[in-house]
Amino acid sequence: MELRTRALQTLCLTDPAQKVASAQLLHAQAATLSIAKDDFQPFGDPPGRPARPVLVERVVKPHRSPFTPDGLATLLHTVAHIEFNAINLALDAAWRFDGMPDAFYLDWVRVAAEEAHHFSLLRAHLQSLEGPGTPPVRWDYGDFPAHDGLWTVCAATAVDVVARMALVPRTLEARGLDATPLIQAKLRRVATPQALRAVEILEIILTDEVGHVAIGNHWYRWLCQRDGLDPVAYYRVLAQRYDAPTPKPPFNTQARLQAGFTDEELAILLA
């Protein structure tokens, strides 16, 4: 079967475990699949998602400290939801945009499989936690409300591959490079075995996300070169046009450099 068709089929799956398995199988078989370049029509519906979690524009919840079991569960659920969305974001890039080199589609299929792995690690850890009570409280993905901001940006850039590369991997996902070390530091202060296992999972995610942001940087610059655009100047145009969130310090400058941001781009962030 054709790779982009398989990516779309996986995107439309609603069961998280089935989506994870399908994304990983697609990556494993990607080298054997053909890649169509211009046979797709725009697909405006949202991706396949489970009935839970309930999606809201803004999550309003009482402060829960990760020093408590339910607070740690809330934190893990938040990150798991981001990673579940990231599977859909990568699959959407792999099927949606016509006329790109084969390497573009293969890159995003690989990203989808890695995001699926991240989600699986977080979900399994969330399921392993026990809260107070008899029997003890247990959690799973879907037990807490979650926001839909990542897919909102994905939908807004559905007809503009340059904007998608600029504003999803290089903006939204790059924020994770900055935020993850802060979360890890907080969890190290908690210092329970469950919190320290979360630190280990986040380290795996951070390492892979450097590569994912690098893929976004590569294809954004490739597109700018193809279209005769200045990457730095045009990013400002796109950020304003799509009302992209402004990155806020502290910045993980080492990870951003590893992910392909230039000294000029970092200087603008730090100004």
Mean model confidence by pLDDT:
92
| Strand ordering within the main sheet | 1-2
Biggest beta sheet attributes: 2 strands, parallel
- Give the DSSP E fraction (strand runs of 2 or more residues): under 5%
Number of strands: 2
Tell the overall outline. Answer: globular
In DSSP terms, counting alpha (H) and pi (I) runs of 4 or more, how many helices?
A: 10
Give the distance, in angstroms, between the N- and C-terminal Cα atoms: 49 Å
Rg (C-alpha, Å): 19 Å
Structural class per helix/strand content? mainly alpha
N to C succession of SSEs: HHEHHEHHHHHH
Q: Helical residue percent?
A: 55-70%
Low-confidence stretches: none
Short description:
Helix 3 (about 70-95) packs antiparallel against helix 4.
Question: Key terms for this structure?
Answer:
271 residues, two-stranded parallel sheet, globular
Write up what this structure looks like.
The protein has 271 residues and is mostly helical. It contains 10 helices and 2 strands. It has helices at residues 3-12, 16-29, 69-96, 102-128, 149-156, 161-190, 193-227, 231-241, 253-258, 263-270, and strands at 55-56, 146-147. It has a two-stranded parallel sheet. The radius of gyration is 19 Å and the shape is globular. The mean pLDDT is 92.
Secondary structure blueprint with pairings:
Elements: H1 3-12, H2 16-29, E1 55-56, H3 69-96, H4 102-128, E2 146-147, H5 149-156, H6 161-190, H7 193-227, H8 231-241, H9 253-258, H10 263-270
Parallel strand pairs: 1-2
Helix pairs in contact: 1-2, 1-3, 2-4, 3-4, 4-7, 6-7
